[in-house]
Amino acid sequence: MPQSKSVLTRQFNSHWILVLPFLATLIVLYLGPIVDLFWLSFSEPQLGVHNYQKLFESEFLARIILTTFRICVATTIASVLLGYVVAYVIVQTCTAQRKWMLTFILISFWISVLVRTFAWLMLLGNSGAVNNVLLSIGLISDPIRFMRNELGVLIGMVQYMIPYAVLPLLANMQGVDQRLINASRNLGATRTQTFVRVYLPLTKPGIVASSLLVFIISLGFYVTPAILGGGKVLMIAEYISVQILITLRWGTATMLATLMLAGVLVILYIINRSMRLTDIFAGVKK
Amino acid sequence: MSEKSPNRALNVLAWIILMYLVAPVIVTLPVSLTPKSFLSFPQGEYSLQHFEFFFTDGGWLLSLWQSTVIAICSMVLATMMGTLSAIGLWRIASRVGEMIRIFLLMPLIIPPIISAMAFYRLWTPLKLLDSYLGLILAHTILATPIVIITVSASLSNFDLRLEQASRNLGASMLTTVWRVILPSVRSGILAGAIFAFILSWDEIVIALFISKFSVYTLPRRMWNGIRENTDPTVAAAAVFLIVLTVAVLIIYALLGRESHVSDKGDGNAHES
Known about the structure:
Chain A is globular and about 70 Å long. Chain A contains 14 helices and no strands.
């Protein structure tokens, strides 16, 4: 709007004051140490890129990264698939059921991750509820090993991720023009054809955003793999914590952290091209 | 007309998935009522001993107290800074402003493990390790972005001209914020405050790094209990957390009903 330049600058200056407290706090107490971490990866224990060289030399390191990737990809696929079903039903269904479904998703957001992992151990552990019942019926003779392995980690992570998968899909699906679907059916396409050739492509941005979002959250996962993996499923986050707290190998830890952060930021940039992040989070956290 | 009822099978599948999301926590209830002193399922006999222990044991009570204090302090600080930042950004509304907004959301974007490393690294020379202040600061930094998001969402429904009118009529910026803007974005502030509280209350990864003995929050005590896998008090704690969460959700829903008349929904289906 047309205003004299001095008034504009005065207004700008005064409103930045509101932002300053947190901005300053963030730069000093957060950005500072993170940049420090980045620097450490090139300077600890000596100056150079040898921390990064370890990526190619150490088989152990490679295995951890591979495990992390494998589980994150599996988690992403499962979460987006199941999330798609939920989002699809939510969008298509009547208002009453939609409210209930959204309430359930909201509730699941609020369950502490420790409560979840504990519940999974109690439910699917070797002496857990499910195995107890199956054993007492006589259906099995040995407990099924759901937990303290990769399967357990997957079950736990997917449960956490599905709501995050649903959000971008929901945002996307709500924008799909129903008339396109109707037109397709009208022109003679079957339900399956309509879904595969009209609806699915329309929801591609949501699928992409959802997959990438779940993937980057999975990358940094610590609690669930640490507990449900029983020590056998070593992912990057847990390995980093061991390097920091126990073996004090800050060089390796910061190197992995830098890579993780770089990966997250790159993927976020890609998501932002596909779907504006604010669209995903704006209407939901209420 | 569009088909309002999706495939029956899909419907059922969706509900099964939703149950997968929510139902497993129910199993914590029977375990918490076991008469034995190790993790087990009650075989007909029930006992409240673990709840009793949870609410009387010095250790658990201390953790409960510490978690509550830290969460409340973090909530207050985060809500204040987050609300101010959101209002400031909303009013600035320039390209630089939007870039700063993304920057301010950094703690949400960066994986918790990396945040934990950063705080650990800085808190050591600052002597903030294993202290209330250290944890409160860290949690505040983590929670403020969430408040920014919720308050910004509320602000997007607020008419800019009301603020301009107020300034025009002579009110200072402080008065405008306090008496014009804040009352209208109450629901966003409330939502942000609740999320901030829950974030701090449930936070474990950073707590694992920057606290040791003096500060032993509830999640840390539970983490220990789960790793050792023997103490049913953890189950009692879990039930307590679930009940608390549901109670807060109900209160929030009830409070939300009153203020949702002024906060016009943006058409999203999940507005209640």
